[in-house]
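Hi all, long-time lurker, first post. I run a small reading group and we've been trying to get comfortable going from sequence to structure in the token notation. Rather than ask abstract questions, I figured I'd post a concrete chain and ask someone more experienced to write out its structure so we can walk through it together at our next meeting. Sequence below, copied exactly:
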Amino acid sequence: IEAYRQSTTIDPHDHESWLNLSEIYYKKNLLSKAIKILEDAYSYNNEIANINFRLAAFYLLKHNLSDGLRYFRNGMKINCNGYKEVLKFCPEAIDFKEVNELIKQFNPVRQ
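-- Answer (accepted) --
Happy to help. Here is the structure in token form:
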């Protein structure tokens, strides 16, 4: 954890370190901490699809549909095929009508 923290301090644009750090907190069942890490990452890397998709997944897991959909939409604007990042952490997201509508809107032919 400390190595990733140092990496994000030295280079806050190193989005992989932010993502790895958030995954560690996710695996430790510290979802709020993982979201905080990703919110910090977003402030430096808002154009990275996986940061948006990971935030979407974690917010959906916290039953925060509005923030989850906002980040999902942002991610789809950047990479319409990258939504599987959400399903990796929140497979039930595919059951949300709003998520499916966004997938169809940005990617009419599902990959």
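A couple of things your group might point at:
The chain has seven helices and no strands.
The chain has a mean pLDDT of 95.
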